[in-house]
């Protein structure tokens, strides 16, 4: 079941002049990672990703959705501080990642708090020139969907998730974009499993995404000045999966590390075409504010609902 996109607006978003500098702070897992190290080279006009150089260390074979946004859809110069870490879950004490060295969402937010919440000279962000993006949940579901107490666990995961969003709000964040969980039940990994397993994971994805929309609504209502959007990543993924040849792939299940000749980079991570579609969905959602939206065909990827 496709989860609809949600747009929740509790305040009008005001961004400065077109030549102003914006900041994009992101958190997540391998679907978002670029290998950014906060202690190394900082984002600059010559390399908005900071380190590594564009497109960074990704799991797409090239740019991921963050890279496409920064390079192809930026309304103005935008510095990307990407704290996403491969294998991340929201809270490692709730859903264990594949190794203990993985930085969870909690760890990533702490990195933000320790390094840029104070608005240092290299990241002089404000409430209006900053956007906070979160795409997480793939590993929370992938590592636990079969558990008998999954519904209770998802509630606990959401409690932890939004305690971290409260930290960001308290630091001054006001503009948020949340990406929900894509159809990972359709990854090559899951297509090799039984139909019942695919259906079981799909049901948990739907539950997670429904909870995310509800929690975002509550978060926005409880915190004055929040502008929050939930982008439906099911839509761009399904667009490519249903039309693989349009996006350079012979079918919807092959994978190749070049990130181009198949929809998938490997058996669990999407290649560049899907990442570009996700970027277009986010750009369309934030069109005229932080990013510039795409063509009419791009806009058809998602139909935001405004409350």
With helices defined by DSSP (H or I, 4 residues minimum), what is the helix count? 9
The low-pLDDT segments are: 1-19, 295-307
Average pLDDT, rounded to a whole number, is 90
Strand content: 5-15%
User: In whole angstroms, how far apart are the ends?
Assistant: 22 Å
Q: Give a quick account of the main beta sheet: strands, pairing sense, barrel closure.
A: 6 strands, mixed
Could you give the order of the helices and strands?
EEHEHEHHEHHEHHH
The rounded Rg comes to 18 Å
Helix content: 25-40%
C-alpha geometry:
globular
Reading side by side through the largest sheet, how are the strands ordered? Answer: 1-6-5-4-2-3
Protein name: Carbohydrate esterase family 16 protein
Signal peptide: 1-20
GO molecular function: hydrolase activity, acting on ester bonds
Keywords: Hydrolase, Signal
Describe the 3D structure.
The chain is built from nine helices and six strands; from the N terminus they run ββαβαβααβααβααα. It has helices spanning 65-72, 105-115, 138-142, 150-171, 188-191, 195-222, 234-242, 272-285, 296-299, and strands at 6-9, 22-28, 78-82, 130-135, 175-179, 227-231. It has a six-stranded mixed beta sheet with strand order 1-6-5-4-2-3, sandwiched between helices. It is globular and about 50 Å long. Mean pLDDT is 90; it is low at 1-19 and 295-307. GO terms for molecular function: hydrolase activity, acting on ester bonds.
